[in-house]
Each structure stands twice: as C-alpha cells, then as structure tokens.
What we know:
This protein is about 70% helix and about 5% strand. By secondary structure, the chain is mainly α. Strands 1-2 form a two-stranded antiparallel ribbon. A hairpin with a 2-residue loop joins strand 1 (about 55-60) and strand 2 (about 65-70). Helix 1 (about 5-45) crosses helix 6 and helix 5 (about 175-210) runs antiparallel to helix 6. The radius of gyration is 21 Å and the shape is elongated. The protein starts with 5 loop residues before the first helix and ends with a helix.
Amino acid sequence: MIILDPTLSEWLNLLFRWIHVFAGIMWVGTTYYFTWLDARLTEEEKAALNTGHAAEVWMVHSGGFYVVERRKTPDLVSRTLHWFRWEAGITWLSGFALLVLLYYLGGGLLLEPESTISVPVAVAIGIGIIVGCGVVYDVMMASPLGRHEKLFAVIAYVLIVAVSFGMTRVFTGRAAYIHLGAIFGTIMAANVWMHILPSQRRMIAALKEGRKPDEKLAARAKLRSKQNTFMVVPVVFIMISNHFPGTYGEHYNWIILSVLVLVGWIAAKCIRRA
C-alpha cells in the first residue's frame, strides 16, 4: 500500500482535477458543437435539395460571422485539416490519474472499513471491470446487435444496471459511482482514438490515393460519436456526484445511479434535438 504525503496528494488532486475538468469542457463542447452542426447541416441539405445551392450554416460569435459547409471530398492539397482528438486523450489520462490518486493509492475511499477484500485485489477488480466492460461494448458493437440502436441501448442499459449493482457490493458507493464514470469515459476515449480517428485516417488515405472513401467508415465513426454524446451526460453527473452523498450514500445507491444514467440519456436525446 502506497501512502502519499497529504500535502503532495492535495496538490496533485488539484492539478489533475483542474486539467480533467477543463479538458472535459473542451471535449464535451466540441462533441456537442459538431452534433448540433451536423443536425443543422442535414436540415439545410434537405431544404437546398432542389435549389442547386450548397447547404451552409451561418453563425455569429465574438464579433465575427462564420459560414460552414459539409463536403464529402475535402480539398486536402490547399487546406489544413483540423483534428479534434487531444481533448479526449487528456480528459481520460487526467481522469485515470485522479482514480489512481484518490482511490487506488491507499484504498481509503475504495473499500468500506469492514470489507474483507484487500486493496490490491480491489484495485485489480476495478481495473478489470473497466477493461472488461470496454471489451464487451466493442464486441456488442461489432456484432449484428450494433446495427440495431434501440435493442443495443436496452441490452446495454440492463448490463449497466447489473454492473452498478455488482460494484456497490464490492466498493464504497462513491467508488462504485466513479468506476462507472471511468467505464463510460474509457469507452468514449476508445471510441475516439481506436475507432473514429482511424476511420477518418483511412478515409483521407483513400482520397489521397484517388479512391472513393468507404461510406461505412463514416457511418461507423458517426455512430460511435453519437453514442459518446449519450454517455457524456451521465459522466458529467458522476464527476460531481461526490458532492451529493444523498445519491451514492443511500442503501439503494445502485438504483439511484441506474435511474440517473437513464435520465442522462433522455437529457442527451433532448439536447441533440435542440
């Protein structure tokens, strides 16, 4: 068991949390901005279908006017292509650093005082659950189930409820909540770095070689991005849940967590339509 100096632990907590919150703001902001932009451009494309004009979205912000259009084949020679990726990576890295610092070093917040599980075993269980849930998610996405969004959501929610219940039997309520947030956050970051970005790189490579990009790659990337917009609302609640012991501290805390995840999904659906 590793015990850090309290002063050092406090400053590391401040540093990692500051980075985590700010990087998360940038990640969530870009995610929902492009979700909104995609929806508006789809509306504009339908309106301009028979006009012969390209669909555009006009915006005003910070004293300037901006116009955005969507293209299937970008001009890769004379234009700089801007990527949005480090927000996800930094959010995940800083979040994992906080998980290690606050829950895995010492284990004081990880286990109840009467727990018979050792801290190393509990840490192994926590990491195993995070990795295992990510693998299960990817297997489900790669299976035929991944093509049926509503059925996928129902089965995924049942699994979330089961995992939430199981974790509250092992960890403290607060640690169980944070681990569910870590599961969602890991899946979201993996969606960006292991699926969305590689798909985009393969599409760009096809364009550079004079080939038409595979539209399935674009569809898969868009679906993963869409699912991230649903997971992020519960994740934000979990990030602030330690301030509300009336949630994680209750006897039926796993039910409260499960209900709030569902509420977050409903909120995300409303936000996406806004």
